[in-house]
């Protein structure tokens, strides 16, 4: 999808505005709405998202009352898509692009994600460890690191893959609907450090999200999980952090 927009910008409309950076699904800067669903331009493909006009299936009648016989029309994304008979005039169909839902629009496909980043910053997205250094028997600093067991790392390792693209926020009906909610991205970042055994501020972090616009605003719809480009089960993590905050 990103390649198509680049071609349009270079050959058709140089004023078209959209944001991108790495082009490989790692930076998260090119999140938009594709056919109403938040996703990254650089990982979305035409085959997956093109909406071909519906064709009458075999045995069905069209708008003029004619009954169609023969093989059913092939479905988008099927192996028959490349077949000329299935493709009709060769057009892949229509793709509707828009800015990421739930954020102010700056221009064309560019949404202002600063509100999301501000919420993440508000929750101090960095490690706050004890500062105790490992020392030798002589009292000299041995190594400046905080050791963890594999099981401790596993509690937050997947969460640390979040790239703050905003796809989960645009998918959330509460956040995108305009309700007062800090959003799933901010809660994921909070959960990442709450689950880190090296962090000493877990209770303070849970206090910070135990607010009316924090975990209390999450309605557990789990729409935030569906399109996460990093494979984070955001909905499950929301459930876990809500339970942890309420049980503390």
From TrEMBL:
One record GO biological process: respiratory electron transport chain
Entry keyword annotation includes Oxidoreductase: yes
Annotated 4Fe-4S ferredoxin-type domain residues: 152-176
GO cellular component, as recorded: plasma membrane
Any one GO molecular function term: succinate dehydrogenase (quinone) activity
Enzyme class, UniProt record, top EC level: oxidoreductase
SUPFAM superfamilies to which the protein is assigned, alphabetical: 2Fe-2S ferredoxin-like, alpha-helical ferredoxin
InterPro entries named among the record's database cross-references: 2Fe-2S_ferredoxin-like_sf (IPR036010), 4Fe4S_Fe-S-bd (IPR017896), 4Fe4S_Fe_S_CS (IPR017900), Beta-grasp_dom_sf (IPR012675), Helical_ferredxn (IPR009051), SDH/FRD_Iron-Sulfur (IPR050573), Succ_DH/fum_Rdtase_Fe-S (IPR004489), Succ_DH/fum_Rdtase_N (IPR025192)
Protein name: succinate dehydrogenase
Organism: Bifidobacterium callitrichos DSM 23973
């Amino acid at each position: 999808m990103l390649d198509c927009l680049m071609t349009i910008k270079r050959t058709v409309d140089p004023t078209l505005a959209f944001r991108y950076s790495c082009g490989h699904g790692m930076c998260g800067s090119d999140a938009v709405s594709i056919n109403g669903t938040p996703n990254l331009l650089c990982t979305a493909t035409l085959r997956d998202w093109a909406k071909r006009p519906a064709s009458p299936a075999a045995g069905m009648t069209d708008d003029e009352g004619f009954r169609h016989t023969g093989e059913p029309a092939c479905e988008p994304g099927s192996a028959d898509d490349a077949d000329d008979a299935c493709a009709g005039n060769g057009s892949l169909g229509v793709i509707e692009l828009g800015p990421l839902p739930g954020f102010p629009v700056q221009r064309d496909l560019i949404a202002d994600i600063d509100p999301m980043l501000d919420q993440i910053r508000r929750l101090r997205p960095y490690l706050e460890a004890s500062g105790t250094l490992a020392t030798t028997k002589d009292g000299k600093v041995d190594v400046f690191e905080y050791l963890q067991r594999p099981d401790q790392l596993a509690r937050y390792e997947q969460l640390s893959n979040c790239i703050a693209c905003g796809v989960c926020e645009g998918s959330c009906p509460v956040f995108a609907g305009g309700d007062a909610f800090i959003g799933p991205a901010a809660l994921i970042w909070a959960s990442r450090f709450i689950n880190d055994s090296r962090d000493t501020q877990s209770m303070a972090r849970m206090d910070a999200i135990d607010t009316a616009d924090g975990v209390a605003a999450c309605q557990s719809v789990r729409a935030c999980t569906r399109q996460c480009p990093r494979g984070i089960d955001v909905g499950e993590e929301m459930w876990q952090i809500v339970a942890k905050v309420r049980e503390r």
